[in-house]
Design a protein that fits this description.
Layout (H helix, E strand, L loop, with lengths): L1 H22 E6 H17 L5 E7 L2 E13 L2 E8 L5 E8 L2 E8 L4 E7 L4 E8 L41 E6 L3 E3 L11 E3 L6 H14 L5 E4 L2 H5 L6 E6 L11 E2 L13 E3 L5 H15 L7 E2 L2 E2 L10 E3 L9 E3 L14 H5 L21 E2 L7 E9 L6 E7 L2 E8 L11 E6 L5 E5 L9 E7 L2 E9 L17 E8 L16 E4 L6 E6 L3 E7 L4 E7 L5 E4 L6 E9 L2 E9 L1
Length: 580
């Protein structure tokens, strides 16, 4: 029995290593490979075929490469070109005495081959999944309604070329909106030069695109910038450029394109974004291609079979490594949705030490002992604080003291233009750190958190963290990718409004309360009402009629506490309502 087991084990190992040998073909040592390559180039030159090179892809199979660019040294060769008579193809080889790198890409047939070497200086070629080398067939967005082409020569506001998401970050990504020229010898366009036009996007769209990308990469120690000088100050192995342009020479017909895992390459091989119809589209496409720079794969589905998952119709969410530009909320993903074909941990991969970036430093304490004390103005307004939830496990703690009464705290993410990623949970704790309340919106579309509580005098704590919403398998999401930036503000009882509550007086009713659209006001007497914010500023004055259901549209008001006040018998009497 033991002998049979050993035989079967040896058989399995033999089959395994045979399969490895079939998938990876030895090319000898790098030294012999470069020697043979140079001899072949000399022979071709002697036949007046100096623009061709024989590219081995298996023991008995070769391609003929047409060389468009060549750099030769005594012990090195760098070749870029295309496969002869094969449209949509490209290749490059960079070989030295002890190292080899390169690839062959055949877009029409979705085939790819990779050249590599090991630490001993042995050279290999292997057939690989084309998606492990390059982003292909990323969706394009119609430019019909965009006026970008006509704006190609418009000057960009100079302030928009100075943006930085994290000055001093360990790594850097440049969003290049103002055009870029790549000389011959680059890895795009088969070695030919590229003259990329400016994006032609409006200033508003440029800002929107920047904020989308900045928020997607906010958890990491990575500076997203539009400043060329800042970008150039970083070493080549800690930076990459994303060219945002209508010039799709690098990837004709693509929405965007990038080399997989190229963030640390000591080579000028930028990623490209051609989806410029809106700032949202450009930002999400750029974030997707930057994800590839950190070796992320596509998020698609097995059923129905698709390379890119756009999220479900009539739902809020889509994965960044799918086609998230069609959804208002997009996140990094680990394949928690139904039918996912990719369960890799996006966040762990981007933060892996091999890229030299990692997570940004936590900005606030994660318990009541290290809570940041919120500062209040003389009117009881919380002085706004900005923060970042960089991990699913992160909680930022704040403390405040109230003399008693209604306390409102709001935490807002960057929610304009579908920019925000963080779905905010506010938790309230008493002075001993015991949780006494949770506040969040269960709707996946609404990311902001709002707390309204009538509290006795004393010291309290709140924490800000990320939370999921909806069914993560069917259009919702978990807390995994619910990370990013927020601001915290609000009021405590410390204002000068002389109020007498009508909360329990049935002759004056407001409903629904809270509301984010329309409130209905029913009074048993005619009244002139002042709409007042929490700082005591009158926003609007209007009249209500006795025993009539008057309505007030509050949709344009910011979230927070407001007051409806009227003068009666020489004093103001006031009713509170909450715009959620």
């Amino acid at each position: 029995m033991k002998k049979n087991y050993i035989f079967l084990l040896l058989l399995v190992l033999t089959v395994f290593f045979s399969n490895v040998a079939v998938s990876q073909t030895s090319l000898g040592t790098c030294s012999s490979f470069i020697s043979n390559l140079k001899k072949g180039l000399e022979v071709s030159a002697g036949r007046n075929e100096n623009k061709n090179v024989l590219l081995q892809i298996a023991d008995s199979k070769n391609f003929v490469g047409k060389i468009n660019y060549k750099e030769s040294g005594a012990l090195s060769e760098f070749l870029v070109g295309e496969i002869k008579n094969v449209s949509g193809s490209s290749f490059y080889l960079r070989v030295m005495e002890k190292s080899l790198e390169g690839h062959i890409i055949l877009k029409k047939t979705n085939e790819a081959y990779k050249y590599s070497s090991d630490v001993q200086g042995n050279a290999y070629v292997s057939k690989v999944d084309i998606n492990s080398l390059i982003c292909v067939d990323y969706a394009t967005i119609s430019q019909k309604e965009a006026k970008t082409a006509k704006n190609g020569s418009a000057a960009i506001n100079s302030d928009l070329l100075k943006l930085e998401s994290l000055p001093g970050g360990t790594g850097c990504i440049l969003l290049d909106f103002d055009g870029h020229t790549m000389p011959a010898g680059n890895l795009w366009n088969n070695g030919g030069a590229i003259y990329a036009l400016p994006s032609g996007m409006s200033d508003a769209f440029i800002l929107q695109a920047f904020e989308v990308v900045a928020e997607d990469y906010r958890p990491f120690n990575l500076n997203i910038t539009t400043n060329e000088a800042v970008f150039n100050a970083y070493p080549k192995t800690k930076r990459k450029r994303v060219v945002i342009t209508p010039t799709d020479t690098a990837g004709p017909g693509e929405g965007g394109i990038a080399f997989i895992g190229s963030f640390t390459w000591d080579t000028d091989a930028p990623a490209w974004c051609f989806n410029i119809a809106t700032g949202k589209a450009a930002g999400e496409t750029a974030s997707h291609e930057i994800g590839h720079l950190f070796s992320l794969k596509h998020d698609g589905r097995t059923s129905p079979k698709e390379e890119y998952f756009a999220g479900l119709n009539n739902t809020a969410w889509g994965p960044i490594m799918g086609t998230s530009f069609v959804r208002p909320v997009s996140h990094w993903s680990k394949g928690e949705y139904s039918g996912a074909n990719n369960t890799e941990n996006d966040l762990a991969i981007i933060s892996d030490k091999s890229w030299g970036v990692g997570y940004r430093i936590d900005d606030y304490g994660d318990n009541i002992a290290s809570a940041f004390n919120l500062t209040l103005s003389s009117e009881g307004e919380i002085i706004k604080r900005d923060g970042v939830i960089e991990k699913e496990s992160d909680k930022d703690f704040f403390s405040f003291t109230t003399s008693g009464g209604d306390v409102s705290i709001e935490a807002n993410t960057v929610n304009k233009w579908g920019t925000g990623n963080l779905h905010i949970l506010i938790q309230l704790y008493n002075s001993e750190g015991i949780e006494i309340g949770q506040y969040w919106d269960s709707d996946p579309y609404y990311l902001d958190g709002f707390m309204f509580a009538d509290l006795p005098a004393g010291k309290y704590f709140v924490s800000i963290s990320g939370v999921g919403a909806g069914d993560k398998a069917w259009g919702g999401y978990s807390a995994y990718g619910s990370i990013g930036s927020y601001s915290i503000s609000g009021t405590v009882p410390n204002h000068n409004l002389n109020t007498v509550s009508f909360d329990k007086n049935l002759n004056f009713v407001i409903y629904p309360n809270p509301s984010n659209k329309i409130i209905t006001i029913k009074s048993d007497h005619d009244a002139i009402l002042n709409l007042i914010n929490a700082l005591g500023i009158t926003i609007k004055t209007f009249k209500v009629t006795a025993n009539v259901e008057d309505t007030l549209n509050v949709e344009n008001l910011s979230s927070g506490v407001y007051f409806l006040s009227e003068m009666s018998k020489g004093k103001f009497i006031t009713h509170k309502f909450v715009r959620k």
